[in-house]
UniProtKB/TrEMBL annotation:
<keyword id="KW-0134">Cell wall</keyword>
<keyword id="KW-0961">Cell wall biogenesis/degradation</keyword>
<comment type="function">
    <text>Hydrolyzes acetyl esters in homogalacturonan regions of pectin. In type I primary cell wall, galacturonic acid residues of pectin can be acetylated at the O-2 and O-3 positions. Decreasing the degree of acetylation of pectin gels in vitro alters their physical properties.</text>
</comment>
<comment type="similarity">
    <text>Belongs to the pectinacetylesterase family.</text>
</comment>
<dbReference type="InterPro" id="IPR004963">
    <property type="entry name" value="PAE/NOTUM"/>
</dbReference>
<dbReference type="Pfam" id="PF03283">
    <property type="entry name" value="PAE"/>
</dbReference>
<protein>
    <recommendedName>
        <fullName>Pectin acetylesterase</fullName>
        <ecNumber>3.1.1.-</ecNumber>
    </recommendedName>
</protein>
<dbReference type="GO" id="GO:0071555">
    <property type="term" value="P:cell wall organization"/>
</dbReference>
<keyword id="KW-0378">Hydrolase</keyword>
<dbReference type="GO" id="GO:0052793">
    <property type="term" value="F:pectin acetylesterase activity"/>
</dbReference>
<keyword id="KW-0964">Secreted</keyword>
Amino acid sequence: MLKLKRERMATTTTNANALLVAIILALLMCSPRCIYSAERRLLVNMTLIRNAPALGAFCLDGSLPAYHLHRGFGAGARNWLLQFEGGGWCNDIESCLERAKSRRGSTRYMTKWEVFSGILSNNASLNPDFYNWNRVKLRYCDGASFAGDAVFKNGTSLLYFRGQKIWEAIILDLLPKGLGQARKALLSGCSAGGLASFLHCNNFTKYLPSNASVKCLSDAGFFLDERDITSNHTMRYFIKDVVSLQYAWQGVEKNLDENCTASSLDFPELCFFPQYALKFITTPFFILNSAYDVYQFHHILVPSSADPHGHWNRCKLNPAACNPEQLNTLQEFRRDMIVAMGLFYKYSRRGGLFINSCFAHCQSESQDTWFSADSPRVHDKTIAEAVGDWYFSRRITKEIDCPYPCDTTCHNLIP
């Protein structure tokens, strides 16, 4: 009996040791991503801009605009990274009124604490080039990529199209907090915020010291002026409505690049598209985009209006389920995107590119896709490494991936 008890105790100890070894091996194999997931997330509090009313800066519903600032330290104490929040657009009064009742149009409904990860992380092993910079997330609440400057009222409804004023109010609030003495600065953004990076890049440099190193980055903001599968210009008409809505109240168009609008007199709203505005941006620029951007796939190439019977539904959810004809359409979309960047790729000496073949949208704010053990790679380089190499001029960074499905490192993030 005593012998049997000892054997059971020995077996239990052996099993416990085996389990411990397995846990340690698992942590080592998934480091740093799994270890980070067990750490406390970096949460950053919201700062409301109290003097915004004096500048005429309001969210759609009239609430105060806001940002989140996490201070830099050490060698990065005088460097600044600003990240425009994304979140689509509203293109008519009805959709803007609806938006004003949500976190996309009012700071009243926004989370007061934001998780900073990816390019906003303060962990050197997860964000090696920008971890110790002053990092700012600019909250998005105007519905037009921080570009409007007008007020709509009809007696019963009131909407503030004041994205341009919000941008100015945030910058003016940050200048005395150290932005005005910046040595290095990077203006970035995701999705509609990535588009805002194109729209405000040149203007950003005007606020900073002349000897500062100032550059801009757009993540998933290179929205194409592309026909949908029924040959309709769905996205062009949508953007025209966004611009016309706020231009009708003397807003967006005057805040587009005047050189671009002068060259597109018949269709000035086209300057809202990066492919037309890009050649007028004089500040060094980096374009991070998927060649099969999920938002553009679902809303530009195959919007629901172009596929009323849902023939593309399975393909939209899983690219492996696409039939040969659908895949060919997707490859044509990729080619059009690369062609639209052709002059930039060939002639821009200070520009950078990272165009991968993942079905994703926004890859700089997520730790998994920005910099981790299994992050997407192009030519064996992660997004974080490519952006860092470009910003610090360590090497030329113009990476374009091979067509789907060749890339085995992708995180196909289809919502």
